[in-house]
């Protein structure tokens, strides 16, 4: 099971890459980010990512840049995979923050909401079309269990781990080809 992860060189992205590297040592698991010259805010880099994604079974669209680049990467990848009749799975990593009812302006939630909507539209197109041979799922975790999250004032002592996300991705990838879960919210609970 080959997996390509944007934002895969730290935090949950790195955890996902490590999970698949250990579980499937004869397959290719790769993380990409600005640290190894893949900047999703640059069109040329997005095109490099899309072209590389054609060689993988799973593409994880995790990295975000505070703009609309993650959404643009999804739409361009979706179109390219459809064009070449690619099989596989695209996972978009959104956020539970899109459910926020805050009265304050939250740019992060707005940008992730755009990704939610784009992913939903991609899923609907797959559902009603025989052109798409792949599946798309939006995963929306709440608080993450990462070094950065643990430093936040609102850290509760528990968060969604990268291994939890990787396990779910593996399960969905191995599920029947005609099953697509379009949107999944993941939350941790205190025990």
Give a quick precis of the structure.
The chain has 191 residues and is an alpha/beta fold. The protein has six helices and six strands.
Question: Which features would summarize this protein structure in a list?
Answer:
about 190 residues, alpha/beta, Rossmann fold, 6-stranded parallel beta sheet, 6 strands
Describe the structure.
With 191 residues, the chain is an alpha/beta fold. It has one domain (3-186): Rossmann fold (3-Layer(aba) Sandwich). The protein has six helices and six strands; from the N terminus they run βαβαβαβαβααβ. The protein has helices at 11-23, 43-53, 69-83, 107-127, 147-150, 162-174; strands spanning 3-6, 29-32, 58-61, 87-93, 133-141, 183-186. The protein has a six-stranded parallel sheet, with helices on both faces. Helix 3 (69-83) links the parallel strand 3 (58-61) and strand 4 (87-93). The model has no long low-confidence stretch (mean pLDDT 90).
| CATH fold field value | Rossmann fold
Query: What percentage of residues falls in helices of 4 or more residues?
Result: 40-55%
CATH class category label = Alpha Beta
Structural class: alpha/beta
Helical stretch tally? 6
CATH architecture: 3-Layer(aba) Sandwich
* Oligomer status: single chain
CATH superfamily caption: NAD(P)-binding Rossmann-like Domain
Radius of gyration: 16 Å
First-last Cα distance: 33 Å
Mean pLDDT: 90
Instruction: Return the domain count.
Output: 1
């Amino acid at each position: 099971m080959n997996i390509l992860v944007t934002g895969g060189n730290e935090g949950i992205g790195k955890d996902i890459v490590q999970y698949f590297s250990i579980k499937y040592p004869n397959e290719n698991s790769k993380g990409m980010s600005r640290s190894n010259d893949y900047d999703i805010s640059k069109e040329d880099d997005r095109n490099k990512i899309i072209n590389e994604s054609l060689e993988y079974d799973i593409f994880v669209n995790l990295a975000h840049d505070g703009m609309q680049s993650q959404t643009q990467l999804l739409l361009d990848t979706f179109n390219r995979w459809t064009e070449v009749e690619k099989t596989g799975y695209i996972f978009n990593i959104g956020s539970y923050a899109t459910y926020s009812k805050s009265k304050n302006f939250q740019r992060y939630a707005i940008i992730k909401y755009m990704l939610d909507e784009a992913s939903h539209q991609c899923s609907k197109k797959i559902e009603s079309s025989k052109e798409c041979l792949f599946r798309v799922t939006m995963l929306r975790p709440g608080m993450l269990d990462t070094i950065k999250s643990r430093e936040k004032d609102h850290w509760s002592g528990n968060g969604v781990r990268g291994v939890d996300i990787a396990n779910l991705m593996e399960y969905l990838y191995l599920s029947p080809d005609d099953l697509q879960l379009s949107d999944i919210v993941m939350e941790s609970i205190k025990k």
